[in-house]
Design a protein that fits this description.
This protein is α/β, with parallel strands linked by helices. The protein is 34% helix and 21% strand. Strand 15 and strand 16 form a beta hairpin. The longest helix has 49 residues. It starts with a helix and ends with a helix. The structure holds flavin-adenine dinucleotide. It is an enzyme of class 1 (oxidoreductase).
């Protein structure tokens, strides 16, 4: 919508569109139809592979025992996985009416497009909705408790995102303030938002807007689950688990046959993280031990252009480096140098690599730019498989593609020539169950490859020395042979 309405953007591509508009109900219907299509497809797939679906609220009655609904429908299972997810977190003092003061659950239905909407919270959900609402013509005001917008992102990426996604758009913001009270619109009055200073708690301002979207995070949905029946105490509502998603009880012991995945354990509140944790549990209960490396799980923010990231931010990496005594380096490439991005008039973008120059380990990758959410997987797979930058540098990317942004990024990193091989992470495990048996076949492969490469380089060096040696002998002999010939001829 934004591109269609931008004369400048279209003109630069040589295009002309007379006028662009949208039908709100049509947009909402498209989103709803898509969601129900995906839901139906997934349900059919589950049934097709033999999954029984029992509908009702589940309560844990004891080990390996779940009650479904309020009836006496009790089922037993060898293993139980809790995956009860999360609900929008609404701070104290905020009155949600679902019409003028809404959460993301309401916003997804797009029942209205307010002229002026305040978005409370500038995390990825708030940012994505600001992208949607401004494209549809709303004016947006951000309310953020921390001192800068998008505090969860790498600072350099937030700065660029602010320059591209906030400043040129119909968006203003208040940072360092809490929305202490929000009253829905009623009796012809607008939505009232009372702001207080986040540090001093002094009143700062009152906003009057058409609507407010509360995007202050998600809270785990773990109430009424019967956790007390297995002696589990939640921590801020989250179910405590170990690195294998096994539930930990109030005494710090593992509850046998009980796992918790997804938003309810709070490790990483993303759909694909929940799914990866589920796969990890299935691996374990079917006899193959597995520990998921959460630092290899990518995240994306679906704005225009997109933002994506995996691993540590630069400040996190520097802190880790200081603590553990290793050097941290940063490499960057711009989308401006990418042919495909330029062809699409989308040169505004940055890819940033945070790495260890001593061994070529990737610590984090952050991308802002066209299709960033698709581009991140080369980096996240590399982290998951333990691939080093010196190996990635040699990979070939098709031209012209956006993937060349990452190609350039890895090629521009300066890994020390005789880089040591990074330590094995604990991501790949044997099926024996103990931590002490943890192995990583890919890393082992890399390590062997490293040793082999070292041997080959060493033998090459020896061969070169020998060639020079024989070459010198040959030259000496040649000179003497020459002198001998001259002597004989004279
Ligand atoms: C606006 C928005 C945008 C998002 N965008 C993205 C994105 O782009 N990418 C991404 O990866 N993630 C995104 N997320 C996050 C993602 O939706 C969650 O991380 C993911 O859904 C968590 O999966 P889950 O299985 O843990 O829980 P959920 O998807 O929340 O599912 C839990 C289910 O369990 C049911 N349930 C709860 N308690 C019980 C009980 N006792 N008995 C029976 N059933 C129960 C619930 O009704 C629900 O259906 C977004 C979230 C929001 C709100």
């Amino acid at each position: 919508m934004r591109e269609l309405r931008s004369d400048h953007h279209l003109k630069s591509l040589g295009l002309h569109v007379s006028s662009a508009g949208y039908d709100r109900q049509g947009v909402a219907d498209h989103a709803n139809n898509l969601a129900s299509k995906i839901r139906n497809n997934l349900t059919s797939s589950l049934k097709a592979i033999g999954v029984d679906i029992l509908t009702g609220f589940g309560t844990i009655l004891g080990p390996q025992k779940v009650k479904i609904g309020s009836s006496d429908n009790i089922v037993t299972a060898k293993n139980i996985i809790i995956a009860t997810g999360s609900v929008p977190f609404v701070p104290k003092g905020v009155e949600v009416d679902g019409k003028s003061v809404i959460t993301s659950d309401h916003a997804l239905k797009l029942e209205s497009v307010p002229d002026w909407i305040a978005i409370v919270g500038s995390g990825y959900i708030g940012l994505e909705f600001s992208d949607v609402y401004t494209a549809l013509g709303s004016e947006v005001t951000f309310v953020e408790a921390l001192d800068q917008l998008m505090p969860g992102f790498d600072p350099e990426i937030s700065k660029l995102a602010q320059r591209v996604l906030i400043n040129p758009r119909n968006i203003d913001y208040h940072t360092g303030v809490f929305a202490s009270k929000i009253t829905p619109a009623r009796d012809g009055k607008p939505v009232l938002i009372e702001l207080i200073d986040a540090k001093t708690k002094e009143p700062k301002d009152t906003l009057e807007v058409d609507a407010a979207l509360i995007a202050t995070g998600r809270a785990p949905f773990t109430q009424g689950l019967g956790l007390e029946n297995v002696d589990v105490a939640t921590q801020r509502g989250f179910i405590p688990v170990d690195e294998r998603m096994r539930v930990i009880d109030a005494n710090g012991k593992l509850v046998p046959h009980l796992y918790c995945i997804g938003d309810a354990n709070g490790k990483m509140m993303l759909a694909h993280a929940a799914s990866a944790q589920g796969i990890s549990v299935v691996e374990q209960v079917t006899g193959r031990d597995h520990v998921l490396n959460h630092l290899s799980i990518p995240a994306a923010c679906f704005t225009h252009p997109e933002i994506s990231m995996v691993g540590l931010t630069e400040p996190q990496a520097r802190e880790k480096g200081e603590k553990e005594g290793f050097e941290v380096s940063v490499a960057k490439t711009s989308f401006k140098a990418n042919t495909k991005a330029l062809a699409e008039n989308e040169g505004e973008g940055l890819a940033k690599l945070i790495y260890r120059p001593d061994n070529g380990e990737i610590l984090g990758v952050h991308i802002f730019g066209l299709h960033a959410a698709d581009l991140i997987h080369e980096a996240s797979n590399a982290i998951a498989l333990g691939t080093r930058i010196q190996d990635l540098k040699l990979a070939v990317h098709a031209h012209p593609t956006l993937s060349e942004v990452l190609d350039e990024l890895f090629k521009s990193a300066k890994v020390k020539e005789h880089a040591s091989i990074p330590e094995l992470p604990k991501h790949y495990t044997s099926s024996s169950g103990g931590d002490e048996h943890i192995q990583n076949p890919v890393k082992e492969g890399n390590r062997l490859r490293g040793i082999t490469t070292g041997l080959i380089m060493e033998s090459r060096r020896i061969l070169l020395v020998l060639i020079y040696f024989f070459h010198d002998i040959y030259r000496v002999c040649q000179r003497y042979l020459h002198l001998l010939l001259l002597f004989l001829l004279s």
